[in-house]
User: What shape does this take?
Amino acid sequence: MRIAIVDPASWSLAYDLPLAESLARAGHEVSLYCTRSPHVGKPTSDVPGVRVVHNAFYRRRLRPLPRRAARALRHPLDLGKLVRFLRDNADVVHVQWMPGRKLDARAWAQLAQVMPVTFTAHNAQEREEAVDPELLRGFTAVIAHSDGGARMLRDAGIGAVWRMSIGAYTQYAETAGPKRLPVSLPDDAPTVVMAGLLRPYKGADVLLEAWPAVRAAIPNAQLVIAGKPMGVELPAAAPEGATLLPRFLTEEELGWLLRRADVCCLPYRRIDMSGVAVSALACGTPLVVSNVGGLGEYVGRGAEIVPPGDPGALADMLIAVLADPGRQDRLEAEARAAVATHYSWDAIAREYTTRDQALVSAFGT
Assistant: This one.
């Protein structure tokens, strides 16, 4: 099959690239239509078996307009050109995001009249940015990453909903270490890492409030909170044993931090599913996460859960895991088993193949 993956603003290249590569390994002709991204280290033109069109959107800057305004003007033109091209050059289209919202929804709904077009609802539940179900009715099928997200979409009246896991981001387990370490950590220090863009719903403040109790119980424990703050105000001074890195991380830095950590902590208040979580699992790093959205689905696959917004419960769980090497070993074994099976990109590609072939057959192409 000729499979097109479309991510106009390259918002989820860490997801798009391994999905595209796994579909190519399954024997399909795969093209990824996106734009250049300064925040993804892996070259977007060098993915085995995949044609990556990184200038499909926003190729021209339209100076001297600000970047956002220039993209707003370019988007309808680039989208229309791509939709016309895909009509004759793809068998199935998987749309990842709709930067133009209603404009995009109309364009893809028109294409879906003549060929299969799916949409991946990365934020299906528990987020302010959750997509409006009304924009999804024109798609042939809508993809959710969690049981709760799939249920929410069905309850909203979306007919065809696919429940498809996010595969393990093994690139963070395999990438080389950074030339310069982002933080110096003692070799024997039990370490907790929270990484990724720091937004209000992610609960960095809950973790910071919990941390003094962890340090009191485990005096040499270390905490690293790393990521660019987006609407979050971090304290001017980090608590004892904590390091704040308020900036974007390179892939090499993120991979090193997740591999170095004894626990990856995600104390989110709201979420559907998390790319950072499957990145940590790929590194064999245990998770301590809030029981929100689909994060509870990681239990038995390398995670322990706590109630959201509860610093006391979070501190107790971090202490319990950090102080128990046997528990850490069990969680690591669960994570590695899940990465090899449930979160395997090749297994996900096989499921996509089955579903895509059914759609293509239904359209008679």
